[in-house]
Amino acid sequence: MKQYKMELTDEEKEILEGKHGEVMRKVLESVVLYGEAFEARRLLPIDGPVHLVTSFALTGIESVFDMMDELINAGLKTKEPFTVDPRPIDYDNVECTEAQKKIFNAMYENQEKYEIQLKKLGLKDGNAFTCTCYMPEVGNIPKKGQILSWAESSAVVYANSIIGARTNRMSALIELLCGIIGKVPEFGLVTDEGRRATWLVEVKTSTLPNAQVLGSAIGMKVMEDVPYIVGLDRFLGKGINSATLDYLKDMGAASASNGAVGLYHVENITPEAVEQGRSLLVENYRIYTIDDNEIKRVIDSYPILWKDLNARPTMCFIGCPHLSLEQIYDWVEKISDRLSKAGKDKVSINTVLCAAPDVISKFKLDSEAYKKLVDMGLHLTYICPLMYMSNPECAKQPIVTNSNKLRTYSTARFFLDEDILDIIVNGNI
């Protein structure tokens, strides 16, 4: 057997010697080599749910499909059913031109085949496509302290920070292999030391800052480090409620995409900060102060990638990461109120709210609220807007969003929620 630096159990050595099959040997070897790249000492058992980031069958990654077939033919699957990131296409609810559809159909021509592969490897069910698998309607919810194998950045930071589970920001497909072997390498955010904060972030704004902008500011400053955030409890209160969950979800997603934050602590709010307080800070921590001027500076720093800066927006995406059920209701009410004040019945631009399939289904059960949404000209979809924007024909459009993640990874233009409301009601910036 090849010599490895990592401490291995007798069972792991047997697998690496091929005694459990050649495919299983390759699975474990991949995980071990991945761990050794990060100087992991050993493997730890996974005791929480698995979530995969690769939900799309993009043309050009045929080697992935081949690997999936190899795993399936060997009779392997994850130890527990998994969820996966959103699907890329929804023609029924997201308008596309024929030119855009042609490109989408070419980009994702293997999508149906890939979803069959996912089901054979342990996909939870046909609705299990969302970046917010931890929503109660979806049900793939880890528990505090559980070891996970996740790669989706917004889900990783949510699980680590708000739930107190433990996962590194795994690489795509490595998280699948870890789910099959049932173990992850021990390093980084799964260790006590790796979860200590190296930054003290002081929020000294006059009002509660926009979650997406606050997360952006933190991410761009601390990058992959762990921040300990103080001052938010002045606005959010102590502990966690549904409104706080949604705020931290969006803040974390922005910190993970505008930087690479995989864990944050919020004083008097997130579980480890409540339990351990400022003892989570390392000795020589750095300080970052965020006041009103810093928030403005961050917003002003965002580049605008539209060809025509004065273009009339053609579409608005809300929900990256996916919206919670409460957020859908909130946006419906806010848009309704703004339309009423403007003396209008429908939005002026194509406005799309993105959420998990199970969350959308739950909302549709409220026939009155759903009719209100439809009557205002709004659309609900389960897609990932990032995948929509990856189509070069779609990227040419002047699209607006309140998502800092979507802004970071696409040509979409970011606006604060109040400005988004004005734009979708009046049709102009």
Automatic annotation (TrEMBL):
Residues 6-411 form the Phosphomevalonate dehydratase large subunit-like domain. Keywords: Iron, Lyase. GO terms for molecular function: lyase activity. It comes from the Bacteria. Pfam families: AcnX. This is Phosphomevalonate dehydratase large subunit-like domain-containing protein. It comes from Thermoanaerobacter wiegelii Rt8.B1.
